[in-house]
Write a structure and sequence with these properties.
mainly alpha, 21 helices, single chain, globular, 425 residues
């Protein structure tokens, strides 16, 4: 009976993620409450996700990333962009992509695409290189580079992915390291960026950007020069403590929290700002998913899912086939569903299948944790996709010449890289 309750709770979570009628965090907290009410887990364990080391790492990292947006980093890059206004050709395209890729390491992509639209609108609507022809390919670059480097939120990617499957596949030798997501993403970053550099020419020549579709961005209060230097110093120290985790141990998880405290005591970050950043829907969602994933593993529900899907794939499917199946499933799902929903739904399933088959789960987990960002085909895939399609006034059908090859390249690159790094057998 316990296994069926957990399966029902998991199914409810998946349906609610797809429907997205309420915030993801509300869905996962509902799941935790049901698990506690039915006695599947005790009351303390039901909400233990908030004390999990993954959440301890991610929540303050969100606050640190928010403070970076108040520095002059954006303004300085704007100056670089203005210097390129009179340029045309490949150099201009590369400059836009480079700026977007840098921003994507520190700032949420929805904010990045909004900022970049302002820059793109300086191009005008004449000639070959227009704002509308570059905007969707720019989204493709952001999807390829979003939080990929092990700095800022990218430094927490491995922990997020581990948290989604360690309750199902607890063997520590199959846990991801901090550098795994970055190394794995390099081929897709190169291939998809190279494609976007040239494939913008596949975009139709139409009218320009729709400014009314963009909400006016609220200007953040800028820091003084001294405060800015203090923020940079704290950020560098935090990153070093995380990168050197082989020697710093648990400081990997505590460093962002100490960084936030240093900014509060230094008068750079207000307490209410820190609280707001650390209690976002993403934090609630992760805290709840950790509990559900753990219940899947302990109840045997994960084994049941894995055995069922393994039977559909065949008793001993080829490693490459499985990689392609998960690559295609992830890219297709994230085209219509949100990044986090796709990742949260697929990783526990992948881990359950890997456990049932006796496979190394890291390859399929890296596929899902990377390919879930490649939402370029439809506006519902992510916040940044919604902004890009609204601002560009794109008809999804009319831009298939660009989006379909992008998705095919993403599927192939992710599958091949996973097979090379962590084959199933």
């Amino acid at each position: 009976m316990e296994m069926y309750i957990v399966l029902a709770v998991t199914l409810f979570m998946m349906i609610m993620f797809i429907w997205h009628k309420v915030p993801f965090g509300v869905t996962t907290m509902t799941c935790c409450a049901v698990l506690a009410a039915t006695g599947i887990v005790d009351l303390q364990a039901a909400f233990s996700g908030f004390g999990n080391k993954i959440v301890v790492l991610i929540a303050p990292m969100l606050a640190l990333s928010a403070v970076l947006t108040k520095t002059s980093l954006v303004a300085r890059i704007s100056v670089m962009m203005n210097a390129m206004k009179g340029k045309r050709g490949i150099l201009l395209v590369l400059m836009f992509y480079l700026v977007g890729a840098i921003f994507a390491q520190f700032i949420p992509s929805t904010a990045v695409i909004t900022i970049m639209v302002v820059f793109l609108m300086t191009l005008g609507n004449t000639g070959d290189i227009t704002a509308k022809r570059l905007l969707l390919p720019l989204l493709g670059v952001l999807c390829a580079w979003k939080f990929r480097f092990p700095i800022g939120m990218g430094a927490a990617t491995f922990a997020t992915l581990n948290g989604l499957y360690e309750g199902i596949y607890p063997d520590p030798q199959y846990a991801l390291t901090m550098m795994d997501p970055f190394i794995y993403a390099i081929p897709s970053m190169i291939v998809l960026t190279a494609y976007s550099v040239f494939a913008w020419k596949l975009m139709p020549k139409e009218e320009g950007i729709n400014e009314k579709a963009l909400k006016e961005a609220k200007k953040a209060e800028m820091l003084s020069h001294g405060q800015e230097m203090y923020v940079y110093a704290v950020f560098v120290i935090v990153m070093m403590l995380m990168i050197l985790n082989k020697w710093t141990g648990n400081l990997l998880y505590l460093a962002p929290a100490f960084g936030v405290l240093a900014l509060i005591y230094g008068g750079v970050l207000k307490v209410d700002e820190a609280v707001k950043a650390m209690t976002t829907d993403m934090v609630w969602m992760i805290a709840g998913v950790l509990v559900v994933a753990d219940a899947l593993g302990k109840s045997g529900a994960g084994d049941a899912i894995g055995t069922l899907v393994l039977g559909l794939l065949g008793g001993h499917p080829s490693s490459m086939l499985v990689m392609f199946v998960f690559s295609a499933a992830t890219v297709i799902m994230t085209t219509f569903l949100s990044n986090m929903a796709t990742q949260t739904v697929l990783i526990p399933i992948a881990a359950s299948i890997a456990l049932a088959g006796g496979w190394d789960p890291r390859g399929v987990v890296l596929i899902i944790g990377t390919a879930n960002m490649f939402a370029v085909g439809f506006p519902s895939g992510s916040g940044e996709a919604a902004v890009a399609f609204a601002a560009g006034g794109y008809n999804p059908v009319k831009v298939l010449k660009f989006t379909v090859p992008y998705m095919i390249l993403a599927i192939i690159t992710c599958a091949l890289t996973a097979e090379f790094m962590y084959p199933l057998y």
